[in-house]
């Protein structure tokens, strides 16, 4: 997977299409990412202790990586790899910016 934690991405499909946020968590096995402030769902939580309240919590749900695109200099871009002084680096193909 070419996306990394803290990359800024734009959601290109789904109910939150057009939103921009940072990647909080990545699950490489299912190829899904959690984007900060996007794909919010209501989840019912159980009471765990006397002090901890249960109830309905609003949390971020995972999104498939095919539904997000990297944002570099306010443009959506694909990610490529190139050698820079014998070191492999990621770069945005559209802008050429090294990530």
TrEMBL record:
InterPro entries reported in the protein's UniProt record: KOW, Rib_uL2_dom2, Ribosomal_uL24, Ribosomal_uL24_C, Ribosomal_uL24_CS, Ribosomal_uL24_KOW, Translation_prot_SH3-like_sf
Pfam families: KOW, ribosomal_L24
Cellular component annotations (GO), alphabetically ordered: ribonucleoprotein complex; ribosome
GO biological process, one term: translation
The KOW domain, residue ranges: 2-29
UniProt KW keywords: Ribonucleoprotein, Ribosomal protein, RNA-binding, rRNA-binding
Presence of keyword Transcription regulation: no
Recorded GO MF terms: rRNA binding; structural constituent of ribosome
Entry keyword Ribosomal protein: yes
Summary of subunit composition and partner proteins: Part of the 50S ribosomal subunit.
Family from the record: Belongs to the universal ribosomal protein uL24 family.
HAMAP family to which the protein is assigned, alphabetical: Ribosomal_uL24_B
NCBIfam families: rplX_bact
Function text: One of two assembly initiator proteins, it binds directly to the 5'-end of the 23S rRNA, where it nucleates assembly of the 50S subunit.
Name of this chain's protein: Large ribosomal subunit protein uL24
Species whose genome carries this gene: Bullifex porci
